[in-house]
Design a protein that fits this description.
Blueprint lengths: L1 E7 L4 E8 L2 E5 L6 H9 L3 E6 L11 H8 L2 E4 L10 E2 L5 E4 L2 E7 L8 E6 L5 E7 L2 E2 L2 E2 L12 H16 L7 E4 L17 E2 H7 L8 H9 L9 H10 L4 H8 L2 E2 L1 H11 L2 E4 L3 H5 L7 E2 L6 H8 L7 E4 L5 H9 L6 E5 L2 H7 L8 E3 L1 H10 L5 E3 L3 H6 L1 E2 L3 E2 L5 H4 L9 E4 L4 H12 L5 E4 L2 H7 L5 E2 L9
Organism: Spirosoma fluviale
Keywords: Metal-binding
InterPro entries: Metallo-B-lactamas (IPR001279), Mito_Persulfide_Diox (IPR051682), POD-like_MBL-fold (IPR044528), Rhodanese-like_dom (IPR001763), Rhodanese-like_dom_sf (IPR036873), RibonucZ/Hydroxyglut_hydro (IPR036866)
Length: 470
């Protein structure tokens, strides 16, 4: 028996490959199918099942394409209502995979169809659980992502408590926990950087499993939940009803366009120009009105947070050799309408003599000197509210990047703002969005708050300023 975790850091997502006696199962695959098919081929195995723990909200799963290419059966837990052919299993139903079995444990709470898959080895011993978003290492799934339900998050948290107590906590301590996500995912709030553990350790150290009552559990799990990114329910619907073929999405998105063709496509389709280069490289020159979301950061999550329409036509400006990666990472979160990329990148655009724009960027040291001279300097801190509350420059305003579209009207177009985040990634995203909307008086602070703090020049506080833009 082989069990392998296939972890994708940019989404903090874990898929799983299980193989026994020439048969393989994939649990919660990402959109691309090649890694799983190649792995099965490497082991001389046939992919028999694709198990889905629930209708994922934070990414588009690869179950449909994988089943179509391998002939595997898609398996969901009880109450799932997929809009395509799949097996909706009974609670307790077992599926034979070579010499092992996989038992379905219905564990509603994160969503109502959420299920955990219990792996029984060749001797029938309870060996591992694949918990999806029911149980994480150090946390449990947030109870506010279910679609098509009248249940409150408190109701769902109550179901989650019952599921954990009746289905998970009764299992042996030596059972290995394989969760669907790790630290960095928005599907929980307290996940560990570890991506596996024993159930016994989780019983001892996971705050949610140590709750003394259902009431205490509900209160603790629902406390401090931030609203999920706007694309979450849209991805959940795609996973439930179906979606387009990834091969076709990739073929369309990786069309190479000359600068002239790129400009013509932008004008004809009203496409969003998405520049995925590194922030400071973008600042030195970019196509007017393009948005910068760098591939080196939490790219997919920020795209999903900041681009409201999954069907938005997108044209890419991308470093050479990164074209397929950019299109794939867009497709992983449901942005299937990329219509091509700029051949030769920004250099080709510039060489062809087309119009360019720039963003002024200053060092943290220069910024600190300016702030010392004028403590009323207009500054926008675009970190998350929790980061801002933890520590910020005295008197500055907080405009979290994830709510910038809703709060744009509160910014004065005639005022020159100095914009910073934690390290420089998000501030460039924010400035590019604002510039595309007509805000021209924006100056980036390179290196962000971490660099500002190292200057040791400015007064810092964890006091929440009354003028904070929420």
């Amino acid at each position: 028996m082989i069990v392998e975790q296939i972890y994708t850091g940019c989404l903090a997502e874990a898929a799983y490959y299980i193989e026994s006696d020439g048969e393989a199962a994939i649990i919660d695959p990402l959109r691309e199918t090649k890694p799983y098919i190649d792995r099965a081929s490497e082991g001389g195995a046939v992919v028999k099942y694709v198990f889905e723990t629930h209708f994922h909200a934070d990414f588009v799963s690869g179950h449909l394409d994988l089943a179509a290419k391998t002939g595997a059966t898609i398996v969901f837990g009880p109450t799932a209502q997929p809009g395509y052919e799949a097996c909706v299993a009974r609670d307790g139903e077992e599926f034979t995979l070579g010499k092992v079995k996989i038992r379905v444990l219905h564990t509603p709470g994160h969503t109502m169809e959420s299920s955990t898959f219990l792996l029984l080895d060749e001797t029938g011993k309870e060996t591992a659980i694949f918990t999806g978003d029911t149980l994480f290492i150090g946390d449990v799934g947030r109870p506010d992502l279910a679609v098509k339900t009248d249940l409150t998050r408190e109701d769902l948290a109550g179901y989650l408590y019952d599921s954990l107590q009746s289905k998970i906590m009764i299992l042996p301590d030596k059972v290995i926990v394989y969760p669907g996500h790790g630290a960095g995912s928005a599907c929980g709030k307290n996940m560990s950087t570890e991506t596996t553990d024993t159930l016994g350790n989780q019983k001892r150290f996971n705050y949610a499993l140590r709750a003394q009552s259902k009431e205490a559990f509900v209160e603790e799990v629902t406390a401090g939940l931030m609203p999920p990114p706007q694309y979450f329910p849209k991805n959940a619907v795609m996973n439930r009803l179906g979606y387009g073929n990834l091969d076709e999405v990739m073929q369309q998105g990786t069309q190479s366009l000359s600068p002239a063709a790129f400009e013509a496509a932008a004008n004809a389709t009203n496409a969003l120009i998405l520049d995925v280069r590194e922030a400071q490289l973008f600042a030195k020159g970019f196509i007017p009105n393009s948005i910068n979301i760098g591939l080196e950061g939490q790219f997919a999550g920020w795209v999903g947070t900041l681009i409201p329409d999954l069907k938005q036509p997108i044209l890419l400006v991308v470093p050479e050799g990164k074209e397929e990666e950019a299109v794939l990472r867009l497709a992983r979160v449901g942005y299937d309408n990329c219509i091509g990329y700029l051949n030769g990148g920004f250099t080709a655009w510039q060489t062809a003599g087309w119009e360019v724009d720039k963003i002024q960027s200053i060092t943290a040291e220069t910024f600190a000197t300016l702030f010392e001279q004028n403590p009323n300097l207009p500054v926008l801190d675009v970190r998350r509210k929790s980061e801002y509350d933890s520590e910020h420059i005295v008197g500055v305003e907080n405009l979290p990047l994830d709510s910038i579209n809703e709060n744009m009207a509160r910014i004065d177009k005639d005022t020159t703002y100095y914009v910073h985040c934690a390290g420089g990634y998000r501030s460039m995203v924010a400035i590019s969005i604002l510039k595309a909307r007509g805000f021209t008086n924006l100056i980036d602070v390179a290196g962000g708050f971490s660099a500002i703090k190292q200057t040791n020049k400015l007064p810092l506080t964890n006091y929440v300023c009354p003028s904070t833009l929420l």
